[in-house]
């Protein structure tokens, strides 16, 4: 008979995509809405409602007596990666790096392993791949000049073999590419499944905490851009990074999504080259197009990614159309905010685009979603509609409301300081912008009509 303090085990069903559990079988997962992914899982052991106390592994100590030296961040040798991590990688930390196929995750981590092995970091680096053979990784290392005697390579897809490599090499950094290809012999399911990913990640997290070994895991993403596997995967690790980039652009951006040891909104910039991935410490020049003769339909703004201000050029093309339904095409911008700017321009700026095709895009393949770019988007559209070019040295920063008012945004002084460094000496800013840097003639505009009048596009 089962214990009196245990609940009776009932058959359960689990989604293979997201891990959601239901009491009975359904054709469509209630959580992720995927069809045909719900399968019956093995009956779980009875859950005890009362657990006896046991001896702790280490006694609890006052927080002031906890040693900090063992938790100091160690530089990876790549400044842009250290920026996103918050100064470096912490011993015992588990980092999950996710990104689309072909964006350069393996190339970046191979460079990290090489910099770690060549630097003064404690211990060699161990790169374990479950997706490629050792020869394939060696070819890439030759192409990117990442061969080093302290960089060890293992091609394994079994968790037990990975742990064996760790015992043999005793590395200071472990990279596993990828967590979806490693299989634990003690868990059910195929590699990449919910059960396997959870079991492998849990084992590697325990290994990292026990030995103070920093571990970097490569994660796959779904077609929606989310990390593949159970949602608990992102909760188990300490840091979640997303490596983003357009296949048609050499720019790559490393974005922090979760970070227990530093800021969670920092961004690092890289450039994909034939010989590997290179850091871009000053990426503002990639997002603006300086021309000798200024053309209509362009405006420059400053977005803030984490703590880094980046200048971005917004371009617009407005043309008369004979079609009953004018086209609206947006690239790199939020289509909803562009539509809102068109409505506000027609209502409060007397700039009507109902009979025109409107195209709006950013330069350099960057993506801008913050409201601080609203004023630049509106000015670029008005400039193209009126056929009048904006001043070449002008910066526009501000959020535009539905009533046409210009609202304040954060960090205006920091944005204008970056603009002044790159030669922009005029700016349109919202009210209550705070202290502004010297070298920039800032004009406060309270509504969209004032801004259009100043640039002569009304």
Automatic annotation (TrEMBL):
Q: Where is this motif: RadA KNRFG motif?
A: 258-262
Domain statement: The middle region has homology to RecA with ATPase motifs including the RadA KNRFG motif, while the C-terminus is homologous to Lon protease.
Kindly state a single biological-process term from the GO annotations of this entry.
Answer: recombinational repair
Q: Summarize where ATP binds, as residue positions.
A: 99-106
Enumerate the GO terms in the molecular function aspect.
ATP binding; ATP-dependent DNA damage sensor activity; damaged DNA binding; hydrolase activity; zinc ion binding
What PANTHER family is this protein classified in? DNA REPAIR PROTEIN RADA, DNA REPAIR PROTEIN RADA-LIKE PROTEIN
| Entries under InterPro entries matching the protein | AAA+_ATPase, DNA_repair_RadA, P-loop_NTPase, RecA_ATP-bd, Ribosomal_Su5_D2-typ_SF, Ribsml_uS5_D2-typ_fold_subgr, Rubredoxin_2
What is the protein's given name? DNA repair protein RadA
For this protein's source organism, the top of the classification is: Bacteria, Bacillati, Actinomycetota, Actinomycetes, Pseudonocardiales
Keyword Zinc assigned to the entry: answer is yes
Keyword annotations for this protein, in alphabetical order, are: ATP-binding, DNA damage, DNA repair, DNA-binding, Hydrolase, Metal-binding, Nucleotide-binding, Stress response, Zinc, Zinc-finger
- Which portions of the sequence form the region Lon-protease-like? 357-458
Domain RecA family profile positions: 70-221
Question: Superkingdom of this entry's organism?
Answer: Bacteria
Task: Note the HAMAP family from the entry.
Answer: RadA_bact
- What family does this chain come from, according to its entry? Belongs to the RecA family. RadA subfamily.
Role this protein plays:
Plays a role in repairing double-strand DNA breaks, probably involving stabilizing or processing branched DNA or blocked replication forks.
PROSITE patterns cross-referenced by the UniProt entry:
RECA_2
Gene Ontology cellular component terms for the protein in this record? cytosol
Task: Return the NCBIfam families for the record.
Answer: sms (TIGR00416)
């Amino acid at each position: 008979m089962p214990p009196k303090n245990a609940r009776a085990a009932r058959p359960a069903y689990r989604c293979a995509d997201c891990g959601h559990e239901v009491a009975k079988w359904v054709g469509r997962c209630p959580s992720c809405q995927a069809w045909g992914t719900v399968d019956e899982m093995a009956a779980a052991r009875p859950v005890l409602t009362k657990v006896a106390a046991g001896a702790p592994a280490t006694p609890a100590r006052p927080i002031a007596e906890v040693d900090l030296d063992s938790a100091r961040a160690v530089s990876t040798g790549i400044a842009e990666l250290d920026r996103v991590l918050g100064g470096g990688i912490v011993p015992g930390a588990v980092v999950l790096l996710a990104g689309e196929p072909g964006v350069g995750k393996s190339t970046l981590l191979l460079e990290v392993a090489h910099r770690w092995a060549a630097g003064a970091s404690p211990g060699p680096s161990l790169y374990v791949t479950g997706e490629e053979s050792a020869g394939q990784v060696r070819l890439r290392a030759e192409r990117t000049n990442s061969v080093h005697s302290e960089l060890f390579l293992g091609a394994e897809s079994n968790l037990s073999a990975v742990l064996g490599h760790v015992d043999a090499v005793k590395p200071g950094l472990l990279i596993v590419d990828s967590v979806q290809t490693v299989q634990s012999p003690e868990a059910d399911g195929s590699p990449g499944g919910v059960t396997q990913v959870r079991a492998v990640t849990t084992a590697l997290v325990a290994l990292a905490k026990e030995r103070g070994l920093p571990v970097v895991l490569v994660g796959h993403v779904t077609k929606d851009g989310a990390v593949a596997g159970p949602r608990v995967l992102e909760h188990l690790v300490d840091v979640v990074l997303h490596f983003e980039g357009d296949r048609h652009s050499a720019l790559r951006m490393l974005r922090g999504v979760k970070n227990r040891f530093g800021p969670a909104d920092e961004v690092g910039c890289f450039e994909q080259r034939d010989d590997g991935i290179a850091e871009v410490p000053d990426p503002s020049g990639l997002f603006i197009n300086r021309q000798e003769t200024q053309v209509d339909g362009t405006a420059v703004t400053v977005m803030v990614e984490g703590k880094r201000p980046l200048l971005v050029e917004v371009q617009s093309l407005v043309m008369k159309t004979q079609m009953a339904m004018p086209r609206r095409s947006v690239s790199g911008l939020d289509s909803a905010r562009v539509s809102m700017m068109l409505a506000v321009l027609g209502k409060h700026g007397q700039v009507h685009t109902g009979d025109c095709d409107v195209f709006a895009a950013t330069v350099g393949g960057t993506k801008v979603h913050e409201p601080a770019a609203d004023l630049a988007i509106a000015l670029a559209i008005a400039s193209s509609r009126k056929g009048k070019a904006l001043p070449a040295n002008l910066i526009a920063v501000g959020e535009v409301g539905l009533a046409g008012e210009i609202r304040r945004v954060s960090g205006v002084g920091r944005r204008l300081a970056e603009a002044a460094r790159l030669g922009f000496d005029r700016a349109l800013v919202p009210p209550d912008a705070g202290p502004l840097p010297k070298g920039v003639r800032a004009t406060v505009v309270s509504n969209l009509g004032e801004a259009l009048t100043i640039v002569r596009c009304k």
